[in-house]
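Hi all, long-time lurker, first post. I run a small reading group and we've been trying to get comfortable going from sequence to structure in the token notation. Rather than ask abstract questions, I figured I'd post a concrete chain and ask someone more experienced to write out its structure so we can walk through it together at our next meeting. Sequence below, copied exactly:
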Amino acid sequence: MGFWDKIFARGPKKAAAPRLKGDFILFAVKCDKCGEEIKINVNRRTDIQSLYTEAGEKGAAYILKKEILGTKCPNLINITVDFDRSYRILSRDVSGGKFISSEKEKE
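-- Answer (accepted) --
Happy to help. Here is the structure in token form:
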């Protein structure tokens, strides 16, 4: 294998965690008070915090705590989402609203 072959050789592809638009994860919530639907993009590099778990330890590796404010009313919606090391959602909790299903987001 020559020098250029080593540079341009493609190794086996690794499976990446499902993400939307690069480093952003889309969440959609609906306000309990006024019914406003709010979509937010969460940057996994800046908005999500690491929990610094030990190697092999079970449970969440990352956490997201976000306060969301719509434009129609002053009701504050709080979301907390736990992720594993591949940024898959383990659990999610919302107060002041509810999560909207992904089918609704595609419309």
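A couple of things your group might point at:
Residues 19-50+59-106 form one domain.
The first helix runs from residue 3 to 8.
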